[in-house]
Amino acid sequence: MKTNKRKTGRLPKQDPAKRKHVFYLNEKDEVRFLSLFEQSGKTAMAHFITSCIFDKPLKVVKTDKGIHDYYMRLTTFFGQFRAIGNNYNQIVRSLNANFTEKKALAFLYKLEQATIDLVQLNKKIIALTADFEAKYLSDYGSENQ
User: Fold this and answer.
1) Residues 6+ positions from 48 with CB-CB distance below 8 Å
2) What CA–CA distance (Å, rounded) separates 38 from 76?
3) 61: burial class by Cβ within 10 Å (0-12, 13-18, 19+)?
């Protein structure tokens, strides 16, 4: 006979939860309870209930989709500006290498005008972002008071 038994399965917990409690809610309380559960971000309802019962701090994180979208668009703008800067350098090198000075200056003038337009657009973006931050911070500050 073999004396070595093969152990399979999950290791037993040190302090397993063996007690079960049941409570009933009416429709109004059920809706409120489910709303709080969704806001808590917990994945298991049992964990949410125990944290509520034993007064553990409950974290509720609200995400504003508009703010998230605005942030993502600003991030893509940054990437686009970096790509424009890279293309700008390549164009200037190509103009100097492949064209006469007079023709290169004509193209550089057009490029300079497009750059001025881009700078003006960038100033508008900065102003809109400042307005957005001021509004967001004032709204955020009024919610926490």
Assistant:
1) 36, 37, 40, 42
2) 31
3) exposed
Residue 48 has a CB neighbour count (10 Å cut-off) of: 19
Provide the terminal-to-terminal Cα distance of the chain, rounded to the nearest Å: 74
> For 36-83, how does the pLDDT look when each residue is reduced to its tens digit (9 = 90+)?
888 888 888 888 888 888 866 666 667 778 777 888 888 888 788 888
Looking at residue 5, the DSSP 8-state letter turns out to be P
Q: How far apart are CA 112 and CA 143, in angstroms?
A: 46
pLDDT of 144 > 80? The answer is no
The pLDDT of residue 95 is above 70: yes
How high is the pLDDT of residue 145?
44
**CA-CA-CA-CA torsion sign (35, 36, 40, 42):** negative
DSSP state at residue 23: -
